[in-house]
Design brief:
Blueprint (H helix, E strand, L loop, with lengths): L1 H27 L7 H17 L4 H23 L4 H21 L1 E4 L2 E4 L4 E2 L12 H28 L11 H30 L3 H24 L2 H12 L1 H5 L4 H27 L1 E2 L7 H13 L4 H25 L4 H22 L16
Antiparallel strand pairs: 1-2, 3-4
Helix pairs in contact: 1-6, 1-7, 1-10, 1-11, 1-12, 2-3, 2-4, 2-10, 3-10, 5-6, 5-7, 6-7, 7-10, 8-10, 11-12
Pfam family, one: BPD_transp_2
Subcellular location: Cell membrane
Organism: Aetokthonos hydrillicola Thurmond2011
């Protein structure tokens, strides 16, 4: 049970990180990116290939993020001066193009060249061969404790801020209740992950070490994004999303702000790609199918675009649904494995259709910030 919770925590955190990059591009800037998997693929392969050449893992991951950001630069220069539908079309094509190139190109794996279709295996993974002593184990548990405490404290502040009062007329009772329910669920989940992580770190499971590193990275990216989107830079992004002619009239370089958003979101997706590769321990081109893009869009839409907490919530709900239906549905629905998979996808499609009808802004999104109708 502990190992399974750690696996779910890693999977959820990777796609929460991936979704934060997409949410910056679409939720805050209005850029329709239908190929975020391209940035993840480039980040993953750059990281593992450099690490096989002896480059330290931290530097490899940073260079993977830089490569993904440069891809955003190339895509941006070719599309951002045109209508936004060109960006959607180009990103779909680039996502498949990179996967097919990797699949058909020989890759420099170690001292030899190997066909990309055979994948890349046996690359270094953070903390995989690490054997901590008792002091280091307690230090890692302490870091996890601090992270869990900060998470619970921020959830408490987030709920407290939403309490209806005469001074906060904009905050209605329905939003307060939704925040309260979400806060309690995320709090309980944080406690469960903390307990599982503390047990696994004390007995030292390398996957628990990877989970701790990933959670720290997710917390850092979330913290910096929250600061950025509330800064003047973030307000300009929101103005571009609503009507880019307004910031243009104010003398802002809209093209460059869009480029920054596309590149930063791409870099975040590249970091998510590095963690995705480390989780899998062996990567193949088919690991980066367009389905990853669709899943990430589901998470962002489900949680609420333009809301970083909503993106994390969307990832949690998506993987909770995935885990529960894998365990429960076979006992309820008399279908074989292939049809059961199709049924699970159909159900989440129906849920999204209902959400688009009754709450198109998502669970935590604001209707006045909705970009679906653009």
């Amino acid at each position: 049970m502990v190992d399974y919770l750690i696996f779910l925590a890693i999977s959820t955190s990777i796609f929460a990180l991936f979704g934060l990059g997409l949410n910056l591009q679409w939720g805050f800037t209005g850029l329709v990116n239908f190929g975020p998997v391209a940035f993840m693929t480039l980040g993953a392969y750059t990281t593992v290939l450099l690490s096989l050449k002896g480059v330290p893992l931290f530097i490899s991951a940073l260079l993977g993020a830089v490569a993904a950001a440069l891809l955003g630069l190339v895509i941006g220069f070719s599309t951002l001066r045109l209508r936004e539908d060109y960006l959607a079309i180009v990103t779909i094509g680039v996502g498949e193009l990179i996967r097919l190139v990797v699949n058909n190109q020989d890759l420099p794996v170690g001292d030899t060249w190997t066909s990309g279709a055979f994948g890349v295996q046996s690359y270094p993974i953070p903390l995989a061969t690490f054997t901590p002593n008792l002091f280091v184990k307690l230090l890692m548990i302490g870091l996890l404790t601090i992270l869990a405490g900060l998470t619970l404290w921020q959830l408490w502040r987030w709920i407290k801020f939403s309490q209806p009062s005469p001074k906060k007329k904009f905050m209605n009772r329905q939003e307060f209740i939704s925040r309260l329910v979400v806060g309690i669920l995320l709090g309980l989940l944080s406690v469960a992950i903390y307990i599982s992580g503390a047990i696994a770190l004390y007995d030292y499971n390398p996957k628990a070490g990877l989970m701790l590193l990933l959670l720290l990275s997710l917390a850092f990216v979330f913290w910096r994004l929250e600061i950025l989107v509330r800064s003047p830079w973030g307000r300009i992004l929101k103005a571009i999303r609503e009507d880019e002619e307004v910031p243009k009239a104010m003398g802002k370089n809209v093209f460059w702000y869009k480029m920054q958003s596309l590149m930063l979101g791409g870099a975040i997706a590249g970091i998510a790609g590095a963690f995705f590769a480390w989780q899998l321990s062996a990567i193949y081109p088919d690991n980066f199918q367009p389905q990853l893009t669709f899943d990430t869009w589901i998470m962002v839409i489900l949680g609420g675009s333009g809301n970083n907490v909503g993106t994390i919530l969307g990832a949690v709900i998506f993987f909770a649904y995935d885990a529960l239906t894998r365990e429960v549905l076979p006992k309820i629905v008399p279908l074989d494995e292939a049809r059961l998979g199709a049924f699970r996808i159909m159900v989440i499609g129906l849920i999204l259709m209902g959400l688009m009808i009754w709450r198109p802004q998502g669970i935590l999104g604001k209707k006045e910030e909705l970009t679906l109708g653009k």
